[in-house]
Design goal:
Blueprint: E1 2-5, E2 8-11, H1 18-25, E3 51-56, E4 69-70, E5 80-83, H2 88-101, H3 119-127
Parallel strand pairs: 1-5
Antiparallel strand pairs: 1-2, 3-4, 3-5
Bound molecules: iron/sulfur cluster (SF4) and FE2/S2 (inorganic) cluster (FES).
FE2/S2 (inorganic) cluster (FES) binds next to loops.
Length: about 150
Amino acid sequence: MKVTIDGIEIDVPKGTTILQAARMIGPEVAPPTMCYHSKLKTSGGYCRTCIVKVTQGSAANPTPMPKPVASCRTEVMEGMVVENTINADVLEARKGVVEFLLMNHPLDCPVCDQAGECDLQNLGYGHGAATTRYEFPRREFERVVAAPCP
Ligand code: SF4
Ligand code: FES
């Protein structure tokens, strides 16, 4: 299957997803992912951070797909043309997705052990907006004190 992603053409086996094809090209065109793991069969398709625009469905049917698609769940077709980093609408839509993912997330990264090595932090930095439009109080939970080990 010949597929073009951000202007770069690659040949991939049938059954390859857009995400896998993009990763074969390299990180410069590969969309970010939060719910997909290559070793987990049912992963992917939930978080929408990997959305891309299919501007040509296939060589046989060049009609663009009407909405952005989850690249981790969409298989390539012969002659498909995909836009990720070169499509301003995709980048803007992804910002919105990241904003939703962080809607109820605490803003105190410095107190978190994960800080500095965190995929969510990287996603927010690389693909999120500088501010949020969310004005409501964040969801809070009662503090749970774990019982000491016997
Ligand atoms: S470092 Fe990551 S997991 Fe920890 S608070 Fe920040 S975004 Fe959340
Ligand atoms: S990585 Fe979550 S929908 Fe594709």
